[in-house]
Specification:
The complex is a heterodimer. By secondary structure, chain A is of the alpha+beta class. Chain A has three helices and four strands, in the order E-H-E-H-E-E-H. Chain A has a single domain, classed as Glutaredoxin (3-Layer(aba) Sandwich), CATH 3.40.30.10. Chain A has helices at about 15-30, 45-50, 75-85; strands at about 5-10, 35-40, 60, 65-70. In chain A, strands 2-1-3-4 form a four-stranded mixed beta sheet, with helices on both faces. Chain B is mainly α. In chain B, about 65% of the residues lie in helices and about 0% in strands. Chain B has a two-stranded antiparallel sheet with strand order 1-2. Chain B starts with a helix and ends with a helix. Classes of the chains: A alpha+beta, B mainly alpha. The interface between A and B is medium-sized, with 16 and 11 residues.
């Protein structure tokens, strides 16, 4: 079973793009069959963003839960994904 | 001589326009910007505005920049921005390394906050509708009031996560 990572940001945000590139490489390391990355434009999916509690994009939700209201470091992100992947096979 | 003659003809167009135009008293700037004198004093206290200079008698004097700044503050408040957020925008505006994207980011964050508040208010309104629906509004004694009973039972359950 794969983990869903949703990154809430706004297009044209240079800093967001730069920061998310590093995090994307973490996902690539773990394998795209394990982690599915989706870029979400907060303005296109405003209701969904608000429902999850996104206030200060860029933010990251994992499996439909806002886990990082602000972008984490690559290490923290990797740690969280690894923890979840290790938990995944358990019932 | 020639320069002296020119300055007499059109002083506002020549050098030191800010000093020339820094002649608006607090009352006058308040009238032009359509805000109260108290509001201007408050914005000054909050660091959002400052007089261009003081007169010899010690009165604060403002220029057109102050009027523009007050208009900016007023419009930003109409969009729901707090004074802290307005300060952030004014700082962005004066910083050489910021761009439109930074300002847009502030606007998007504010919109998300407002949408979250609307959502919370709608949930409150819905909760009140449910309470209103369970009460027929008849003249039952208070200890049989379904709204009070429902509120008590909700309280007994504790706040929802």
């Amino acid at each position: 079973m794969s983990i869903s990572v949703e990154v809430f940001s706004t297009p044209g945000c240079g800093r967001c793009a730069q920061a998310t590139e590093t995090l994307k490489s973490v996902v690539a390391e773990l394998g795209q069959d394990q982690v599915v990355w989706r870029d979400v434009n907060v303005l296109d999916e405003l209701d969904y963003a608000v429902e999850l509690g996104v206030i200060t994009p860029p933010s990251i939700a994992i499996d439909g839960e806002l886990v990082f209201p602000k972008l984490p470091t690559a290490d923290k992100f990797r740690e969280e994904l690894t923890r979840r992947l290790n938990m995944a096979p358990a019932p | 001589m020639h320069e002296e003659a020119m300055s007499r003809v059109s002083p506002a167009r020549l050098k030191e326009p800010s000093r020339e135009s820094a002649a608006l008293t607090i009352g006058k700037v308040a009238r032009i910007a359509q805000v109260s004198v108290d509001a201007i004093r408050f914005y000054e206290k909050e660091g959002l505005l400052s007089p261009a200079r003081k007169s010899d008698a010690g009165y604060r004097l403002y220029n057109e920049d102050a009027v523009r700044r007050l208009t900016f503050i007023k419009h930003a408040q109409h969009c729901g921005l707090s004074l802290a957020e307005i300060r952030e925008l004014l700082e962005l505006k004066s910083r050489g390394d910021s761009c439109c994207e930074d300002v847009r980011g502030v606007a998007i964050q504010k919109k998300l906050q407002i949408e979250a508040k609307i959502r919370a208010l709608k949930a409150m309104s819905q909760a009140l509708s449910e309470l209103i629906d369970i009460c027929a509004g008849d003249r039952k004694p208070l200890d049989e009031c379904p709204i009070l009973a429902a509120l008590e039972s909700s309280l007994a359950k504790g706040p929802r996560p």
